[in-house]
Design a protein that fits this description.
Elements (H helix, E strand, L loop, with lengths): L2 H14 L5 H13 L3 H6 L7 H12 L4 H5 L1 E4 L2 E4 L9 H14 L6 E5 L5 H9 L4 E6 L2 H14 L3 E5 L9 E6 L14 H4 L12 H8 L2 E7 L5 H10 L2 E8 L5 E8 L1
Parallel strand pairs: 3-4, 3-6, 4-5, 6-7
Antiparallel strand pairs: 1-2, 7-9, 8-9
Helix pairs in contact: 1-2, 1-4, 2-4, 6-7
Length: about 260
């Protein structure tokens, strides 16, 4: 089949599966199947695309498997990271978390940074990439997620220490601790998109009170947390009760209060 035929069929099938961005995603999938960029496909619509490869990719997305998992890679800030079911898909709102970390770290030389619940390593690798003198450590309780993060170490070539661990690591003493902890309430799970509800690791989604535990345990100058919609004020209050000052809340590109940061008093 030609790229032109593949694009039309993919867009039709994805739209029928309830995917809003069907045309854009069709270009990504057909490009992946053809080993070409969407721009190259537009310039060469008669390029041949393997029908078996095409059907395998589109079929996975029709089943509402996240596009990032189907493609096996996803962009995050200046990086391209390997992605699959072992960890959450890196999201644009988390790029705002990185922005706030970089702002806090700007005046510090060789800061020690902890990314708690690192998953793919997106936050840790972005900080190591954009603050090269930082000594960045990423920890996760999931051995599967850590294995994926180690693959991204090889992929990016960035110097990030990765080790298994949980909130107790935050007590070791850091210049900055950052985390995108699970913050979805159990009662919210059924209302999530199937890409999230049925495919992403449940342990990385469901709220277990990690924001509060981290605020109590962390020995750090700065603490930066990603939060769910409507949670920012409560998390900010928790930080104040735990002895933090200078609390700041930052909105993501959708206007949602997404990042809470504060400094140890």
């Amino acid at each position: 089949m030609t790229a032109r035929e593949a694009l039309a069929e993919a867009a039709r099938r994805l739209a029928a599966a309830g995917i809003d961005s069907a045309n854009w995603e069709a270009r990504q999938l057909v490009g992946h199947a053809a080993g070409a960029t969407p721009t190259a496909l537009a310039a060469d619509p008669d390029r041949q695309v393997s029908r078996p490869v095409f059907d395998a990719l589109v079929g996975r997305r029709e089943a509402r498997e996240p596009l990032a998992y189907v493609l096996g890679e996803w962009g995050f800030r200046r990086l391209t990271l390997r992605t699959d079911r072992r960890a959450l898909v890196p999201r644009p709102e988390t790029e705002v978390v990185v922005e706030r970390c970089l702002a806090l770290l700007r005046a510090l030389e060789r800061p020690c940074v902890l990314d708690l619940g690192t998953g793919t390593g997106a936050i840790a690798f972005a900080l190591a990439d954009e603050k090269p003198d930082a000594r960045v450590t990423g920890v996760d309780m999931s051995p599967e997620a850590l294995a994926l993060a180690r693959e991204n170490t090889e992929l990016t070539g960035l110097d990030v220490e990765l080790r298994e661990g949980g909130v107790e690591v935050a007590a070791e003493g850091w210049d900055l601790v950052v985390s995108n902890p699970p913050y979805v309430g159990a009662e919210e799970l059924d209302g999530l998109e199937p890409e999230v509800r049925d495919w992403e690791p449940r342990a990385a989604l469901l709220d277990t009170g990690l924001h509060e535990r981290l605020a109590r345990v962390a020995r750090t100058r700065f603490l930066v947390l990603e939060v769910g919609a409507g949670q920012a004020e409560a998390v900010a209050a928790t930080l104040a009760e735990a002895g933090y000052r200078g609390t700041r809340i930052t909105r993501d590109l959708a206007g949602i209060e997404r990042v809470v940061e504060a400094e140890r008093a």
